[in-house]
Amino acid sequence: MYSVEADKSKRLVVISAAQRVRDILKDFAPGFRVLADFRWLQSMDTAAARHVAEMMDALAEKQVASVIRVMPDSHKDIGLNILSQFHYGPEIQITTFETLADALQNLVKESGGTSEGMATHDQ
Predict the structure, then answer these.
(1) Residue 105 and residue 116: Cα distance in Å, rounded?
(2) Which has the closest alpha carbon to 107: 29, 28, 12?
């Protein structure tokens, strides 16, 4: 199960778990933002690093502008910062927040609008 939310008008993709990122990004223009929600992450097998790296590569290929991560417990960071160094360029802004509320507040502040109207795609 995963959830990907997309709002083209706000140029925002929200990924709650990893799958089918390339399909979701197909119609996105460069310069969009991503909110990666790791609130429910308890642990992750090291084999998952390959899949996370593939997602990062897909986002970089589509020229993501920024990645906002929600990681309540920094001890559960499974090496995202290290992977980011290899799969994102220096032009991609990465910010990590402890709470979803803080991350959403940052997104609203960046966009100068509201967080309403996001479409949801669950699988």
Answers:
(1) 12
(2) 12
**Sign of the dihedral defined by the CA atoms of residues 96, 35, 102, 50, in that order:** negative
The set of residues, in sequence order, having a beta carbon less than 8 Å from that of 30 and lying 6+ positions away, is: 62, 63, 65
Burial of residue 110 (number of CB atoms within 10 Å: 0-12, 13-18, 19+): middle
Span 44-84, pLDDT tens digits? 777 778 888 889 999 999 999 999 999 998 887 778 888 99
Q: Is the pLDDT of residue 32 over 90?
A: yes
Helices 80-87 and 48-61: angle between axes, nearest 10 degrees: 40
